[in-house]
Amino acid sequence: xxxxxxxxxxxxxxxxxxxxxxxxxxxxxxxxxxxxxxxxxxxxxxxxxxxxxxxxxxxxxxxxxxxxxxxxxxxxxxxxxxxxxxxxxxxxxxxxxxxxxxxxxxxxxxxxxxxxxxxxxxxxxxxxxxxxxxxxxxxxxxxxxxxxxxxxxxxxxxxxxxxxxxxxxxxxxxxxxxxxxxxxxxxxxxxxxxxxxxxxxxxxxxxxxxxxxxxxxxxxxxxxxxxxxxxxxxxxxxxxxxxxxxxxxxxxxxxxxxxxxxxxxxxxxxxxxxxxxxxxxxxxxxxxxxxxxxxxxxxxxxxxxxxxxxxxxxxxxxxxxxxxxxxxxxxxxxxxxxxxxxxxxxxxxxxxxxxxxxxxxxxxxxxxxxxxxxxxxxxxxxxxxxxxxxxxxxxxxxxxxxxxxxxxxxxxxxxxxxxxxxxxxxxx
Length: 428
Description:
With 428 residues, the protein is an all-alpha fold.
Protein backbone atom coordinates (compact mmCIF):
# COMPACT_ATOMS: atom_id res chain seq x y z
CA UNK A 1 0.00 0.00 0.00
CA UNK A 2 1.45 3.34 -1.06
CA UNK A 3 1.03 6.45 1.06
CA UNK A 4 1.08 9.81 -0.67
CA UNK A 5 0.37 13.17 0.93
CA UNK A 6 -0.87 11.45 4.08
CA UNK A 7 -3.44 9.47 2.12
CA UNK A 8 -3.51 5.80 1.51
CA UNK A 9 -3.54 5.10 -2.22
CA UNK A 10 -2.95 1.36 -2.36
CA UNK A 11 -4.00 -0.40 -5.55
CA UNK A 12 -5.00 -4.05 -5.00
CA UNK A 13 -4.03 -6.55 -7.67
CA UNK A 14 -6.41 -8.31 -10.02
CA UNK A 15 -5.40 -11.54 -8.29
CA UNK A 16 -6.79 -10.26 -4.98
CA UNK A 17 -10.10 -9.54 -6.68
CA UNK A 18 -10.32 -12.94 -8.34
CA UNK A 19 -9.45 -14.74 -5.09
CA UNK A 20 -12.30 -13.08 -3.19
CA UNK A 21 -14.94 -15.66 -2.14
CA UNK A 22 -17.82 -15.97 -4.62
CA UNK A 23 -16.55 -13.23 -6.96
CA UNK A 24 -15.36 -15.37 -9.87
CA UNK A 25 -18.50 -17.55 -10.18
CA UNK A 26 -20.82 -14.53 -9.87
CA UNK A 27 -18.68 -12.64 -12.38
CA UNK A 28 -19.04 -15.52 -14.84
CA UNK A 29 -22.79 -15.75 -14.15
CA UNK A 30 -23.20 -12.02 -14.90
CA UNK A 31 -21.17 -12.46 -18.10
CA UNK A 32 -23.40 -15.33 -19.20
CA UNK A 33 -26.48 -13.23 -18.54
CA UNK A 34 -25.06 -10.39 -20.66
CA UNK A 35 -24.28 -12.80 -23.47
CA UNK A 36 -27.83 -14.09 -23.25
CA UNK A 37 -29.24 -10.57 -23.57
CA UNK A 38 -27.30 -9.83 -26.74
CA UNK A 39 -27.84 -13.29 -28.24
CA UNK A 40 -31.59 -12.81 -27.80
CA UNK A 41 -31.47 -9.40 -29.50
CA UNK A 42 -29.51 -10.53 -32.52
CA UNK A 43 -31.52 -13.75 -32.85
CA UNK A 44 -34.85 -11.94 -32.87
CA UNK A 45 -33.42 -9.31 -35.23
CA UNK A 46 -32.37 -12.08 -37.62
CA UNK A 47 -35.82 -13.67 -37.51
CA UNK A 48 -37.55 -10.32 -38.08
CA UNK A 49 -35.31 -9.51 -41.06
CA UNK A 50 -35.84 -12.98 -42.54
CA UNK A 51 -39.62 -12.58 -42.36
CA UNK A 52 -39.97 -8.92 -43.35
CA UNK A 53 -36.84 -8.03 -45.31
CA UNK A 54 -37.22 -4.62 -43.69
CA UNK A 55 -34.22 -2.80 -42.27
CA UNK A 56 -36.57 -0.56 -40.27
CA UNK A 57 -38.33 -3.52 -38.67
CA UNK A 58 -34.96 -5.08 -37.89
CA UNK A 59 -33.72 -1.87 -36.28
CA UNK A 60 -36.94 -1.78 -34.25
CA UNK A 61 -35.83 -4.94 -32.44
CA UNK A 62 -32.82 -3.09 -31.02
CA UNK A 63 -35.00 -0.12 -30.04
CA UNK A 64 -37.44 -2.49 -28.34
CA UNK A 65 -34.53 -4.04 -26.42
CA UNK A 66 -33.33 -0.61 -25.22
CA UNK A 67 -36.62 0.80 -23.90
CA UNK A 68 -37.15 -1.92 -21.27
CA UNK A 69 -33.74 -1.10 -19.81
CA UNK A 70 -35.13 2.33 -18.94
CA UNK A 71 -38.45 1.17 -17.49
CA UNK A 72 -37.07 -2.03 -15.96
CA UNK A 73 -34.38 -0.21 -14.03
CA UNK A 74 -36.57 2.68 -12.96
CA UNK A 75 -39.72 0.79 -11.99
CA UNK A 76 -38.49 -2.66 -10.94
CA UNK A 77 -35.15 -1.97 -9.24
CA UNK A 78 -36.85 -1.24 -5.86
CA UNK A 79 -37.35 -5.02 -5.65
CA UNK A 80 -33.65 -5.17 -4.75
CA UNK A 81 -34.42 -3.09 -1.63
CA UNK A 82 -37.39 -5.27 -0.67
CA UNK A 83 -36.14 -8.81 -1.40
CA UNK A 84 -32.69 -10.34 -0.72
CA UNK A 85 -30.65 -9.63 -3.82
CA UNK A 86 -29.83 -13.33 -4.15
CA UNK A 87 -33.49 -14.05 -4.85
CA UNK A 88 -33.81 -11.01 -7.12
CA UNK A 89 -30.94 -12.31 -9.26
CA UNK A 90 -32.27 -15.88 -9.38
CA UNK A 91 -35.80 -14.69 -10.13
CA UNK A 92 -34.61 -12.33 -12.87
CA UNK A 93 -32.63 -15.07 -14.60
CA UNK A 94 -35.50 -17.56 -14.38
CA UNK A 95 -38.13 -15.07 -15.57
CA UNK A 96 -35.98 -14.27 -18.59
CA UNK A 97 -35.47 -17.98 -19.21
CA UNK A 98 -39.26 -18.39 -19.18
CA UNK A 99 -39.68 -15.72 -21.83
CA UNK A 100 -36.93 -17.28 -23.94
CA UNK A 101 -39.06 -20.46 -23.90
CA UNK A 102 -41.99 -18.33 -25.06
CA UNK A 103 -39.83 -16.89 -27.84
CA UNK A 104 -38.87 -20.41 -28.89
CA UNK A 105 -42.53 -21.33 -29.14
CA UNK A 106 -43.32 -18.14 -31.05
CA UNK A 107 -40.53 -18.75 -33.57
CA UNK A 108 -41.53 -22.40 -34.03
CA UNK A 109 -45.18 -21.44 -34.65
CA UNK A 110 -44.29 -18.55 -36.99
CA UNK A 111 -46.02 -16.05 -34.71
CA UNK A 112 -46.40 -12.49 -36.02
CA UNK A 113 -43.42 -10.16 -35.74
CA UNK A 114 -45.34 -8.01 -33.25
CA UNK A 115 -45.53 -10.98 -30.87
CA UNK A 116 -41.77 -11.51 -31.12
CA UNK A 117 -41.12 -7.85 -30.32
CA UNK A 118 -43.48 -7.91 -27.32
CA UNK A 119 -41.78 -11.02 -25.94
CA UNK A 120 -38.34 -9.44 -26.45
CA UNK A 121 -39.55 -6.30 -24.67
CA UNK A 122 -40.73 -8.28 -21.63
CA UNK A 123 -37.57 -10.41 -21.69
CA UNK A 124 -35.38 -7.30 -21.43
CA UNK A 125 -37.73 -5.72 -18.88
CA UNK A 126 -37.10 -8.64 -16.56
CA UNK A 127 -33.41 -7.81 -16.43
CA UNK A 128 -33.97 -4.41 -14.77
CA UNK A 129 -33.87 -5.53 -11.12
CA UNK A 130 -30.78 -7.67 -11.77
CA UNK A 131 -28.65 -4.62 -12.60
CA UNK A 132 -29.20 -3.05 -9.19
CA UNK A 133 -28.97 -6.42 -7.42
CA UNK A 134 -25.60 -7.14 -9.03
CA UNK A 135 -24.25 -3.78 -7.86
CA UNK A 136 -25.48 -4.46 -4.32
CA UNK A 137 -23.90 -7.91 -4.39
CA UNK A 138 -20.56 -6.45 -5.41
CA UNK A 139 -20.57 -3.94 -2.56
CA UNK A 140 -21.16 -6.75 -0.06
CA UNK A 141 -18.53 -9.07 -1.56
CA UNK A 142 -15.86 -6.39 -1.04
CA UNK A 143 -16.11 -4.62 2.32
CA UNK A 144 -12.55 -3.38 1.61
CA UNK A 145 -13.50 -0.41 -0.57
CA UNK A 146 -10.19 -0.28 -2.43
CA UNK A 147 -10.67 -3.90 -3.39
CA UNK A 148 -14.23 -3.02 -4.37
CA UNK A 149 -12.99 -0.23 -6.66
CA UNK A 150 -10.64 -2.72 -8.34
CA UNK A 151 -13.45 -5.27 -8.72
CA UNK A 152 -15.73 -2.57 -10.12
CA UNK A 153 -13.05 -1.84 -12.71
CA UNK A 154 -12.90 -5.51 -13.66
CA UNK A 155 -16.68 -5.60 -14.11
CA UNK A 156 -16.71 -2.37 -16.13
CA UNK A 157 -14.01 -3.67 -18.43
CA UNK A 158 -15.86 -6.97 -18.78
CA UNK A 159 -19.05 -5.16 -19.81
CA UNK A 160 -17.27 -3.77 -22.86
CA UNK A 161 -15.89 -7.18 -23.79
CA UNK A 162 -19.11 -9.10 -23.02
CA UNK A 163 -21.18 -6.90 -25.32
CA UNK A 164 -18.85 -7.75 -28.19
CA UNK A 165 -18.83 -11.45 -27.24
CA UNK A 166 -22.63 -11.59 -27.00
CA UNK A 167 -23.10 -10.00 -30.42
CA UNK A 168 -20.35 -12.14 -31.98
CA UNK A 169 -21.60 -15.40 -30.47
CA UNK A 170 -25.19 -14.55 -31.37
CA UNK A 171 -24.20 -13.80 -34.96
CA UNK A 172 -22.18 -17.00 -35.27
CA UNK A 173 -24.87 -19.19 -33.73
CA UNK A 174 -27.68 -17.74 -35.85
CA UNK A 175 -25.61 -17.81 -39.06
CA UNK A 176 -24.11 -21.26 -38.56
CA UNK A 177 -27.21 -22.95 -37.13
CA UNK A 178 -30.66 -21.42 -36.70
CA UNK A 179 -32.70 -19.02 -34.63
CA UNK A 180 -33.92 -21.93 -32.55
CA UNK A 181 -30.35 -22.95 -31.70
CA UNK A 182 -29.53 -19.36 -30.82
CA UNK A 183 -32.47 -19.13 -28.42
CA UNK A 184 -31.61 -22.51 -26.87
CA UNK A 185 -28.09 -21.21 -26.22
CA UNK A 186 -29.67 -18.08 -24.75
CA UNK A 187 -31.91 -20.21 -22.51
CA UNK A 188 -28.87 -22.14 -21.26
CA UNK A 189 -27.04 -18.93 -20.27
CA UNK A 190 -29.90 -17.80 -18.04
CA UNK A 191 -30.40 -21.22 -16.43
CA UNK A 192 -26.68 -21.63 -15.69
CA UNK A 193 -26.49 -18.08 -14.29
CA UNK A 194 -29.45 -18.78 -11.97
CA UNK A 195 -27.88 -22.05 -10.78
CA UNK A 196 -24.54 -20.35 -10.05
CA UNK A 197 -26.18 -17.56 -8.06
CA UNK A 198 -28.26 -20.09 -6.10
CA UNK A 199 -25.12 -22.05 -5.25
CA UNK A 200 -22.57 -19.39 -4.33
CA UNK A 201 -24.30 -16.11 -3.42
CA UNK A 202 -25.03 -15.72 0.31
CA UNK A 203 -28.49 -14.63 1.40
CA UNK A 204 -28.58 -11.21 3.03
CA UNK A 205 -31.74 -9.52 4.16
CA UNK A 206 -32.38 -6.04 2.73
CA UNK A 207 -31.79 -3.09 5.05
CA UNK A 208 -34.72 -0.96 6.10
CA UNK A 209 -38.40 -1.74 5.74
CA UNK A 210 -40.05 -1.07 2.41
CA UNK A 211 -43.62 0.20 2.40
CA UNK A 212 -46.30 -2.28 1.47
CA UNK A 213 -48.57 -2.39 -1.56
CA UNK A 214 -48.42 -0.78 -4.98
CA UNK A 215 -48.52 2.72 -3.50
CA UNK A 216 -45.69 1.81 -1.18
CA UNK A 217 -43.70 0.57 -4.14
CA UNK A 218 -44.32 3.88 -5.93
CA UNK A 219 -43.24 5.76 -2.81
CA UNK A 220 -40.01 3.74 -2.80
CA UNK A 221 -39.27 4.95 -6.33
CA UNK A 222 -40.05 8.55 -5.36
CA UNK A 223 -37.86 8.28 -2.25
CA UNK A 224 -34.96 7.11 -4.39
CA UNK A 225 -35.41 10.11 -6.67
CA UNK A 226 -35.56 12.52 -3.75
CA UNK A 227 -32.35 11.15 -2.27
CA UNK A 228 -30.60 11.21 -5.64
CA UNK A 229 -31.39 14.85 -6.36
CA UNK A 230 -31.06 16.11 -2.78
CA UNK A 231 -27.48 14.86 -2.49
CA UNK A 232 -25.08 17.28 -4.21
CA UNK A 233 -22.40 14.65 -4.73
CA UNK A 234 -24.77 12.15 -6.36
CA UNK A 235 -26.44 14.83 -8.48
CA UNK A 236 -23.09 16.19 -9.69
CA UNK A 237 -21.82 12.73 -10.61
CA UNK A 238 -25.05 11.87 -12.46
CA UNK A 239 -25.06 15.16 -14.38
CA UNK A 240 -21.42 14.66 -15.33
CA UNK A 241 -22.24 11.21 -16.68
CA UNK A 242 -25.32 12.33 -18.64
CA UNK A 243 -23.66 15.46 -20.06
CA UNK A 244 -20.68 13.42 -21.23
CA UNK A 245 -22.93 10.93 -22.99
CA UNK A 246 -23.75 13.33 -25.82
CA UNK A 247 -20.11 13.44 -26.96
CA UNK A 248 -19.70 9.70 -26.35
CA UNK A 249 -22.74 8.72 -28.42
CA UNK A 250 -22.07 10.86 -31.49
CA UNK A 251 -19.17 8.90 -33.09
CA UNK A 252 -20.93 5.54 -32.93
CA UNK A 253 -24.22 7.06 -34.09
CA UNK A 254 -22.78 8.53 -37.30
CA UNK A 255 -19.85 6.19 -38.01
CA UNK A 256 -21.53 4.39 -40.91
CA UNK A 257 -22.80 7.50 -42.78
CA UNK A 258 -19.47 9.23 -42.11
CA UNK A 259 -17.56 6.38 -43.74
CA UNK A 260 -19.98 6.26 -46.67
CA UNK A 261 -19.06 9.84 -47.54
CA UNK A 262 -15.30 9.15 -47.46
CA UNK A 263 -14.62 5.66 -48.79
CA UNK A 264 -16.16 2.69 -50.55
CA UNK A 265 -14.61 0.24 -48.07
CA UNK A 266 -17.30 -1.15 -45.72
CA UNK A 267 -14.62 -2.29 -43.26
CA UNK A 268 -14.02 1.27 -42.12
CA UNK A 269 -17.53 1.52 -40.67
CA UNK A 270 -16.85 -1.24 -38.17
CA UNK A 271 -13.37 0.08 -37.47
CA UNK A 272 -14.63 3.56 -36.62
CA UNK A 273 -17.44 2.19 -34.43
CA UNK A 274 -14.90 0.05 -32.59
CA UNK A 275 -12.41 2.90 -32.04
CA UNK A 276 -14.08 4.45 -28.93
CA UNK A 277 -14.71 0.99 -27.46
CA UNK A 278 -11.08 -0.06 -27.91
CA UNK A 279 -9.98 3.28 -26.50
CA UNK A 280 -12.23 2.76 -23.48
CA UNK A 281 -10.69 -0.66 -22.83
CA UNK A 282 -7.17 0.80 -22.90
CA UNK A 283 -8.23 3.75 -20.75
CA UNK A 284 -9.86 1.49 -18.17
CA UNK A 285 -6.76 -0.68 -17.95
CA UNK A 286 -4.60 2.39 -17.29
CA UNK A 287 -7.08 4.02 -14.90
CA UNK A 288 -7.41 0.85 -12.84
CA UNK A 289 -3.69 1.05 -12.01
CA UNK A 290 -4.28 4.24 -9.99
CA UNK A 291 -5.47 4.49 -6.41
CA UNK A 292 -9.03 5.56 -5.65
CA UNK A 293 -8.06 9.12 -4.67
CA UNK A 294 -6.00 9.72 -7.80
CA UNK A 295 -8.77 8.30 -9.96
CA UNK A 296 -11.30 10.71 -8.48
CA UNK A 297 -8.94 13.69 -8.70
CA UNK A 298 -8.51 13.03 -12.42
CA UNK A 299 -12.26 12.72 -13.06
CA UNK A 300 -13.15 16.32 -13.87
CA UNK A 301 -10.18 17.22 -16.07
CA UNK A 302 -10.55 14.00 -18.06
CA UNK A 303 -14.24 14.77 -18.60
CA UNK A 304 -13.43 18.28 -19.82
CA UNK A 305 -10.75 16.91 -22.16
CA UNK A 306 -12.79 14.00 -23.51
CA UNK A 307 -14.80 15.86 -26.23
CA UNK A 308 -11.78 17.76 -27.60
CA UNK A 309 -10.35 15.03 -29.87
CA UNK A 310 -13.72 14.76 -31.61
CA UNK A 311 -13.36 18.31 -32.93
CA UNK A 312 -10.75 16.98 -35.38
CA UNK A 313 -13.63 15.26 -37.18
CA UNK A 314 -15.09 18.59 -38.32
CA UNK A 315 -12.24 19.21 -40.80
CA UNK A 316 -12.69 15.66 -42.17
CA UNK A 317 -9.05 14.50 -42.13
CA UNK A 318 -7.98 11.06 -43.45
CA UNK A 319 -9.85 8.19 -41.85
CA UNK A 320 -6.83 6.90 -39.84
CA UNK A 321 -6.63 10.34 -38.18
CA UNK A 322 -10.35 10.21 -37.36
CA UNK A 323 -9.88 6.70 -35.97
CA UNK A 324 -7.08 7.92 -33.71
CA UNK A 325 -9.15 10.88 -32.50
CA UNK A 326 -12.13 8.68 -31.66
CA UNK A 327 -9.85 6.15 -29.96
CA UNK A 328 -8.39 8.95 -27.80
CA UNK A 329 -11.88 10.14 -26.92
CA UNK A 330 -12.74 6.59 -25.82
CA UNK A 331 -9.59 6.32 -23.70
CA UNK A 332 -10.43 9.58 -21.90
CA UNK A 333 -13.83 8.14 -21.00
CA UNK A 334 -12.08 6.05 -18.35
CA UNK A 335 -13.11 8.64 -15.76
CA UNK A 336 -16.48 6.90 -15.79
CA UNK A 337 -14.85 4.16 -13.70
CA UNK A 338 -14.25 6.27 -10.55
CA UNK A 339 -17.45 8.19 -11.21
CA UNK A 340 -19.60 5.06 -11.12
CA UNK A 341 -17.69 3.40 -8.29
CA UNK A 342 -17.91 6.49 -6.08
CA UNK A 343 -21.58 6.98 -6.94
CA UNK A 344 -22.32 3.40 -5.90
CA UNK A 345 -20.60 3.66 -2.54
CA UNK A 346 -22.00 7.08 -1.60
CA UNK A 347 -25.60 5.80 -1.83
CA UNK A 348 -26.85 4.45 1.54
CA UNK A 349 -27.20 0.67 1.45
CA UNK A 350 -30.93 0.72 2.25
CA UNK A 351 -31.63 2.87 -0.84
CA UNK A 352 -29.24 1.33 -3.33
CA UNK A 353 -31.75 -0.63 -5.38
CA UNK A 354 -34.05 2.30 -6.13
CA UNK A 355 -31.27 4.90 -6.57
CA UNK A 356 -29.16 2.64 -8.80
CA UNK A 357 -32.22 1.83 -10.87
CA UNK A 358 -33.27 5.45 -11.35
CA UNK A 359 -29.77 6.68 -12.18
CA UNK A 360 -29.24 3.80 -14.61
CA UNK A 361 -32.58 4.45 -16.29
CA UNK A 362 -31.77 8.13 -16.78
CA UNK A 363 -28.36 7.27 -18.25
CA UNK A 364 -29.81 4.71 -20.69
CA UNK A 365 -32.59 7.11 -21.71
CA UNK A 366 -30.06 9.89 -22.30
CA UNK A 367 -27.92 7.57 -24.41
CA UNK A 368 -30.85 6.63 -26.63
CA UNK A 369 -31.96 10.26 -26.99
CA UNK A 370 -28.45 11.42 -27.86
CA UNK A 371 -28.08 8.70 -30.50
CA UNK A 372 -31.23 10.00 -32.13
CA UNK A 373 -30.09 13.63 -31.81
CA UNK A 374 -26.72 12.89 -33.41
CA UNK A 375 -28.44 11.03 -36.24
CA UNK A 376 -30.91 13.89 -36.77
CA UNK A 377 -28.12 16.49 -36.93
CA UNK A 378 -26.18 14.26 -39.32
CA UNK A 379 -29.17 13.90 -41.62
CA UNK A 380 -29.78 17.65 -41.77
CA UNK A 381 -26.13 18.68 -42.08
CA UNK A 382 -23.36 16.14 -42.49
CA UNK A 383 -21.93 13.40 -40.23
CA UNK A 384 -18.74 15.34 -39.45
CA UNK A 385 -20.78 18.37 -38.39
CA UNK A 386 -22.95 16.18 -36.13
CA UNK A 387 -19.88 14.93 -34.24
CA UNK A 388 -18.56 18.48 -33.91
CA UNK A 389 -21.86 19.94 -32.70
CA UNK A 390 -22.36 17.17 -30.14
CA UNK A 391 -18.78 17.59 -28.89
CA UNK A 392 -19.15 21.36 -28.50
CA UNK A 393 -22.54 21.15 -26.76
CA UNK A 394 -21.25 18.43 -24.43
CA UNK A 395 -18.11 20.45 -23.68
CA UNK A 396 -20.21 23.53 -22.92
CA UNK A 397 -22.32 21.58 -20.48
CA UNK A 398 -19.23 20.12 -18.82
CA UNK A 399 -17.71 23.60 -18.41
CA UNK A 400 -20.88 24.79 -16.69
CA UNK A 401 -20.79 21.75 -14.40
CA UNK A 402 -17.11 22.38 -13.62
CA UNK A 403 -17.91 25.94 -12.55
CA UNK A 404 -20.19 24.60 -9.81
CA UNK A 405 -18.40 21.33 -9.17
CA UNK A 406 -18.60 20.35 -5.45
CA UNK A 407 -14.92 19.43 -5.33
CA UNK A 408 -14.62 19.62 -1.56
CA UNK A 409 -17.72 17.54 -0.92
CA UNK A 410 -16.66 14.89 -3.43
CA UNK A 411 -13.13 14.76 -1.99
CA UNK A 412 -14.59 14.38 1.50
CA UNK A 413 -16.93 11.61 0.31
CA UNK A 414 -14.06 9.78 -1.38
CA UNK A 415 -11.84 10.13 1.70
CA UNK A 416 -14.62 8.84 3.94
CA UNK A 417 -15.63 6.04 1.57
CA UNK A 418 -12.14 4.69 0.94
CA UNK A 419 -10.85 5.10 4.48
CA UNK A 420 -8.71 2.00 5.14
CA UNK A 421 -10.25 1.58 8.61
CA UNK A 422 -13.88 2.04 7.70
CA UNK A 423 -16.33 -0.56 6.43
CA UNK A 424 -19.41 1.04 4.93
CA UNK A 425 -20.64 -2.02 3.10
CA UNK A 426 -23.88 -2.27 5.08
CA UNK A 427 -24.09 1.29 6.29
CA UNK A 428 -27.53 2.80 6.43
